[in-house]
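User: I need a structural model of Lipoprotein from Cohnella ginsengisoli for a docking pre-check later this week. Nothing fancy, just the predicted structure tokens so I can convert them on my end. Input:
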Amino acid sequence: MRILVIVILLLSIAATGCASGTGKNGKVMLDGKEIVSVKLECADFCKRAETPPFAEKTFTKENGDALKVFHKGIVNAEKMNGVVDYVVTFFMYLAFEDGTQKKYVLNVADEDGMNALLVNTEESSQGYTISKDLTSELRSFIYGGESERRMKLKKKFACGCSCACGRYPHRLQLLQSALYRKRHLGSCYKTRWIQAGYATRTGAYRIFH
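Assistant: Understood. Predicted structure tokens for Lipoprotein:
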């Protein structure tokens, strides 16, 4: 009887591991199905950038650990309280081995120290936040590390002081918008993001309680 209980327990653990995680032969599993590709589509907020990173970008097994990183971002995302109002940076499409797909909103800014926002489009008012560490890994795959776009912006908006103006990826558009203002801090201007769903430390969204 004891042996039977142990066998059942082991089978349950194995089934849980295969349902979501890395299965046999390194397969990346979500809800019992293998993820074969992840496609990102540049959406409205992404298109507003002076130089959008891409129109579409697809990740497969050939892209190293990319699928595992996107999977980690999804399964480790933390549910947020309140109703989330947000702009859309990327639409993310997960394609499974059985031909089905799942669609998400994924907001990852090309800026260090921020949390990504994840939304399942089937529950569009419920947001999930992704840790800074995982966001950093996602950013690396999405933007390719220190992207050419960021380097150009750093040159263009160099302040000549300790504050790195160029670190804000959409600074030009934001400064031109009446929805944003800048506050003088010491010898340098630092943008204070208000309204319209963009915050430097919380990602591209607002929360209403």
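Before docking, keep this in mind: The radius of gyration is 20 Å.
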